[in-house]
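Milestone 3.1: sequence recovery, worked example.
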């Protein structure tokens, strides 16, 4: 099994986590190829569509890609994610039941925590990396900076409303573990099979990370 350490290393090194909403699992294989061609090695596939489990199964067959499940809202979905081959779990909010089931399954979990109280709950649950969602709408990079001051050990995965224009603001913060979003895998690009565009946007984001977010 992929270790927690390996998962954290992979996501933390890239500092980017594309959030995929795939309506048709037929796109899973070309999408995996498009992301790796753009220089990314990890991806979150959300349980927002019926195609999610099958898409995870297909993408997880790509040995270059670390595939996680997103929008996981229940212990049953944790089980479905594990069964499909997901190597980590992301959820929009903090659910003790989801966190517990991930722990039982030995799967790293990044639950949403967007207030001081929620972050404190995540710490109590033994977690130190949380999703910060919806990032732009709840205060963006400034809010993370303020929360990181008291919660010095916590790292954030801001997601929601991030694009190439505001990405550097997040990357500039040491408390930002990785930045998530759909901008390089926008649902309309996936629906139209515009894989070259996915690769171009992915490579552009990877280059921004390499420049240190400047
Ligand atoms: C998520 O689930 O993390 C968000 O819906 C992604 O938000 P974005 O589409 O604004 O990037």
């Amino acid at each position: 099994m992929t270790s927690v350490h390996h998962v954290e290393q992979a996501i933390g090194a890239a500092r980017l986590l594309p959030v995929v909403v795939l309506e048709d699992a037929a796109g899973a294989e070309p999408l995996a190829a498009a992301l790796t061609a753009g220089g990314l090695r990890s991806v979150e596939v959300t349980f927002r569509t019926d195609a999610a489990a099958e898409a995870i199964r297909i993408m997880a067959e790509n040995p270059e890609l670390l595939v996680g499940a997103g929008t996981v809202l229940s212990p049953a979905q944790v089980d479905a994610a594990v069964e499909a081959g997901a190597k980590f779990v992301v959820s929009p909010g903090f659910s003790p039941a989801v966190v517990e089931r991930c722990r039982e399954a030995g799967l790293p979990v990044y639950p949403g925590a967007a207030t001081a109280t929620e972050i404190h709950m995540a710490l109590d649950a033994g977690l130190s990396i949380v999703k910060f969602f919806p990032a732009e709408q709840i205060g963006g990079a400034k809010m993370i900076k303020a929360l990181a001051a008291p919660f010095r050990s916590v790292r954030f995965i801001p997601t929601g409303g991030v694009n190439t224009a505001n990405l550097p603001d997040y990357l500039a913060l040491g408390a930002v573990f990785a930045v998530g979003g759909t901008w390089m895998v926008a649902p309309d690009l996936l629906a139209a099979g515009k894989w070259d565009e996915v690769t171009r946007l992915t490579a552009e984001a990877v280059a921004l990370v390499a420049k240190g977010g400047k």
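The radius of gyration is 16 Å. The longest strand covers residues 16-20.
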